[in-house]
Amino acid sequence: MEFYKEFDKDKCTLCGLCLHECPVMRLPLEEAKAQMERLVRGEDARSVLTRCESCFTCDYVCPENAHPAGLFLRRWEEAYKNGGLPRRAKYFLPLSVPNFRTFAIDRLPENERSMLRSWLDESPAEEIFYPGCNWITAPYLAKSRLLEGYTIRGSLAYCCGEMYFRMGLHDQLRKLSARLKAWLGRMGVKRMVIPCTAGNNLFTNVLPRFGFDYPLEVEHLLPILQRRIESGDIKIEKKLDMTVTIQESCHAKALGPEFMDLPRTILARLGVEIIEEERSRDKMICCGIGGGFSHPSSYNPARLTFSTWRALGEARRTGAQAIATYCAGCAQMLTTGQITNPFNRMPVYHVFELVRMAAGEETISRSEKLKRAAYFLAGVTGRQGPALLDPRRFRLDEVPEVLESLKY
Length: 408
Description:
Layout: H1 17-20, H2 29-41, H3 46-51, H4 57-61, H5 68-83, E1 85-86, H6 100-105, H7 110-118, E2 127-129, H8 132-137, H9 162-167, H10 170-187, E3 191-194, H11 197-206, E4 217-220, H12 221-231, E5 242-247, H13 252-255, H14 257-269, E6 272-274, H15 301-316, E7 322-325, H16 328-340, E8 348-350, H17 351-358, H18 366-384, E9 393-394
Parallel strand pairs: 2-3, 3-4, 5-6, 5-7, 7-8
Antiparallel strand pairs: 1-9
């Protein structure tokens, strides 16, 4: 199925399956039909417009290929254009400063901040490793001999726009598309390796719809890791005798079932047993960040917390020893949620970390991960907290965009 298109009203039969099979809402069929009818008519449907996490599962269960997710995003964009965003949202916008990522980056060890500064280089490079915002916030992931030979380039200033996309803020995507095209053009990039599933999906399926017409070959890190393990280029020094459950990326379904097989195939080669969650693969639930995307939520910390706790609960019920994810953002979200959740203390690993461990490398400790997660939580409490009671609203053109000031 073609990922992301505008809602096609003529194809929609108001069958309600999109909301009935939604892994978050699971509405009774008759209620789902009624809510879809209200959405299509432009009537009040605040409940579903609040609870939607723009995971796009609805598009994949729609029997008519009407792209109902496009309707949700359109309603959110209309609400933004009519009344702006609550001030609490500003702390989570990718290009505003301070934001939840810059707060954490400011507290990283100097050796990791030095890595980030080296990634700002814009000298010519035909192939780059594009870390994306989440790896930039967790640069320890890139401290590996397995990435030797890659030219890593990127900064928060050249975000792929995933958060804007899932909030329905499409004018921002058009601006980002122009900026990314100019940035890649300055370096002469022809090929990009991306460890982030969201970034892979944005560059492949989304940004071209918003003006990104730059000729670029894009490949995710996972198939590269699989090939290198199969060929023996990455040697498995020790089997990881453990059980894990997988936190799926919301964007994985856009890349197809074969892509979702990749982390499972890789983990099996490492000696890892996988215990699937009740809602997995294309019926997965978000790690928690999706609880902030809807316009009524606009990063309401209560909704973010509830959504993250739900994902942690889903993982805990499997009985697995650890959580594995192939999205650094999911890993950060789940680890941050564990600080306030007394019922889940499962270690959280990025799949690349597990590959490194099996290849004989070390990664940072769980206590260090929790320490870094505490930075995210402290930032939300101290920086976003005062805005929660602020009745004022704002528009994106009122937020100075940070570009060259991001020098870490």
